[in-house]
Write a structure and sequence with these properties.
Layout (H helix, E strand, L loop, with lengths): L4 E5 L2 E5 L2 H7 L2 H6 L3 E3 L5 E13 L4 E12 L7 H15 L4 H5 L3 H12 L3
Antiparallel strand pairs: 1-2, 1-3, 3-4, 4-5
Helix pairs in contact: 3-5
Amino acid sequence: MKPPLFVIEGFDISAYASLEKLENHLEPFFVKEVNYKAYDSEGRLLTLSVKVERKPFFFGLFKAERKCVVMQSVELEPKYQKDLHDALVNNLAYTTEENKSTYQEMSLSKLIDIFVKINGLT
């Protein structure tokens, strides 16, 4: 899995600097309730799931359940570069004044650079 990591919901794209930042930022309801796609920067499809952890508190006398988001790679070799490319093209064309055709000819890595420069990383 190579960062940045992208979570796409329609035209909305969020980019995360690391797996830890993504897992700490997303809420468990997102995984179950939202229609999303997730990719690493090379176009590997990623899945999100919810894991329940039991953490001790109060000097270990009690345990509390905590739901957290966990991301996993579905594949070893990236197969979804075009899907990520198209999502970035659509997002950038929608959010900037540039014509869509300007972005369509760009490489995936160039689109990622532009997206991160404009939107930053979480």
